[in-house]
Q: What sequence folds into this?
C-alpha cells in the first residue's frame, strides 16, 4: 500500500470515529439517574424504542448542558417517579431540581424545537449570575 493511500485511509477512519462519537447518546438508568442529574444543568429526554422515529432529533445540538436519554421501556419506575405521561418528554434539571418540561403532542412528537429548549437552558444559565 502506498504511503498516500495509508494516510488517506487513516484520515477516513479518524473522521468516522469522530462522527460516531459525536452522535452517541448516553442513556441513564435507575441506578445512575440521580448522580447524573444533580450536576449543573442537565437535559433528559424520556424516550422509548417503539417511538424512535419521533425522538428529539436535535437533542444532541443543545449547548451549555449535559444531555441524556432514559428508555422508559426499560425503566418504568423513572417514568412514574417523574410523572412522564407522554413521549418524548424533555425535562431540564438544575442541580437535580426540575426547572422546565417539554411534552409531546397527541402524535407523540415533541412540540418544542431546539431553539425553544435552548432558550430555556440559556435562561437557567443566566439566572445563576443574577
A:
Amino acid at each position: 500500500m502506498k504511503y498516500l493511500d495509508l494516510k488517506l485511509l487513516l484520515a477516513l477512519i479518524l473522521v468516522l470515529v469522530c462522527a460516531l462519537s459525536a452522535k452517541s447518546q448516553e442513556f441513564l438508568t435507575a441506578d445512575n439517574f440521580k448522580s447524573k442529574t444533580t450536576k449543573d444543568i442537565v437535559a433528559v429526554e424520556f424516550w422509548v424504542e417503539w417511538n424512535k422515529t419521533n425522538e428529539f432529533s436535535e437533542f444532541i445540538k443543545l449547548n451549555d448542558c449535559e444531555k441524556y436519554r432514559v428508555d422508559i421501556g426499560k425503566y418504568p419506575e423513572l417514568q412514574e417517579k417523574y410523572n412522564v405521561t407522554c413521549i418524548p418528554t424533555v425535562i431540564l434539571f438544575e442541580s437535580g431540581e426540575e426547572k422546565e418540561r417539554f411534552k409531546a403532542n397527541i402524535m407523540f412528537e415533541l412540540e418544542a424545537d431546539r431553539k425553544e429548549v435552548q432558550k430555556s437552558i440559556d435562561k437557567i444559565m443566566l439566572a445563576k449570575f443574577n
User: Anything to note?
Assistant: Residues 17-23 have pLDDT under 50 and may be disordered. The chain has four helices and five strands.
